[in-house]
């Protein structure tokens, strides 16, 4: 199997960078797109990398934020892939800072496209679900109280109802060298995500974890907790992308020497 980053905050000039994340997972039988970026970068980067829409049979959405779902409009008017998502991914949500609300849910055009799909093209992920042999989506992830996964996220524009982003989910692929875990923003917490995957998959070895770890505003205590637990879990390779945050990447690189490789558009992992 091969993993190829199509959208990320980081990209060399021949690609388009944006605040978003999307990764192509090429399995033996088919290709799965995990998240779609915010919209503008996906089709451009895919064409530079020689990835066509017709190659992708399955799209998994980690959660409903615009920077993971906006690229769904790539399929407008085309034969649609099968979409794996939580019903909560469709809800309206906002970032509220200093009384200013900004919508950060799935863009209206993407939501309309999802709503137009025939029922047999949608799989609602309310629990762990096998996409194909050795390739799973987690469904909602059990969380540990030790990871502060809060933020300025609300279900209303007034900022009264915190958005727990309960739908946040990851994917895992079984390889001979251990599990490869892919996270979107890891709103459930990256340690909780890995612990959940290990428990549900009944595995002990994590070969690699790739994706957004959502540590940009994390305290030193949380970074320390994260590094200690990634070491305890024996994660062989970490590929922090998207919303991990530069300071967090430096911290993890120092704490987990030799195990951190920074991701960007065009980055590949093969097993
Ligand atoms: Fe994100
Ligand atoms: Fe997010």
How would you characterize this protein structure?
This protein has one domain (2-270): Ribonuclease Z/Hydroxyacylglutathione hydrolase-like (Metallo-beta-lactamase, Chain A, 4-Layer Sandwich). Helix 5 (220-232) crosses helix 6. The protein has helices at residues 40-48, 66-69, 108-116, 190-201, 220-232, 246-255; strands at 2-7, 22-26, 31-34, 56-60, 82-85, 94-97, 100-103, 122-124, 129-132, 135-137, 153-154, 171-175, 178-183, 206-212, 237-241, 268-270. With 271 residues, the chain is of the alpha/beta class. 21% of the residues lie in helices and 26% in strands. The protein is globular, with a radius of gyration of 17 Å. The chain starts with a strand and ends with a strand. The protein binds fe (ii) ion (2 copies). This is Metallo-beta-lactamase domain-containing protein. Residues 19-242 form the Metallo-beta-lactamase domain. Pfam families: Lactamase_B. GO terms for molecular function: transferase activity.
Helix content bin: 10-25%
CATH class: Alpha Beta
How far apart lie the N and C ends? 5 Å
- Major sheet: 7 strands, mixed
The ordered H/E elements are EEEHEHEEEHEEEEEEHEHEHE
Mean pLDDT: 96
CATH topology: Metallo-beta-lactamase, Chain A
Q: Which hetero compounds are present in the coordinates? A: fe (ii) ion
Task: Quickly give the structural class.
Answer: alpha/beta
- The overall number of domains is 1
User: Could you name the ranges where pLDDT drops below 50 across 5 or more consecutive residues?
Assistant: none
Order of strands, widest sheet: 8-5-4-3-2-1-16
Range of strand content: 25-35%
Q: What is the β-strand count? A: 16
Work out the oligomeric state of the chains in this entry.
single chain
* Structural Rg: 17 Å
CATH architectural designation:
4-Layer Sandwich
Number of distinct helices: 6
């Amino acid at each position: 199997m091969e993993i190829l980053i199509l959208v990320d905050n980081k990209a060399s000039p021949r690609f388009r960078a944006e605040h978003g994340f999307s990764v192509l997972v090429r399995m033996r039988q088919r290709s799965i797109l995990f998240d779609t970026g915010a919209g503008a970068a996906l089709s451009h980067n895919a064409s530079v990398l020689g990835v066509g829409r017709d190659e992708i049979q399955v799209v998994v959405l980690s959660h409903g934020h615009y920077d993971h779902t906006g690229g769904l409009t790539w399929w407008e008017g085309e034969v649609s892939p099968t979409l794996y998502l939580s019903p909560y991914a469709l809800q309206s949500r906002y970032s509220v800072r200093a009384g200013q609300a900004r919508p950060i849910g799935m863009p209206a055009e993407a939501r309309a496209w999802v709503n137009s799909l025939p029922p047999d093209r949608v799989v609602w992920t309310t629990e762990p679900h096998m996409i194909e042999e050795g390739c799973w989506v987690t469904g909602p992830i059990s969380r540990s109280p030790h990871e502060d996964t809060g933020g300025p996220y609300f279900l209303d524009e007034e900022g009264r109802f915190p958005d727990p982003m309960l739908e946040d989910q990851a994917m895992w692929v079984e390889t001979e060298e251990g599990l490869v875990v892919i996270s979107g923003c890891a709103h459930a917490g990256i340690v909780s995500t890995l612990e959940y995957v290990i428990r549900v998959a009944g595995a002990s070895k994590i070969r690699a974890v790739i994706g957004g770890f959502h540590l940009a505003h994390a305290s030193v205590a949380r970074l320390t907790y994260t590094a200690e637990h990634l070491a305890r879990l024996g994660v062989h390779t970490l590929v922090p992308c998207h919303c991990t945050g530069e300071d967090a990447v430096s911290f993890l690189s120092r704490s987990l020497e030799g195990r951190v490789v920074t991701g960007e558009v065009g980055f590949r992992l093969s097993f």
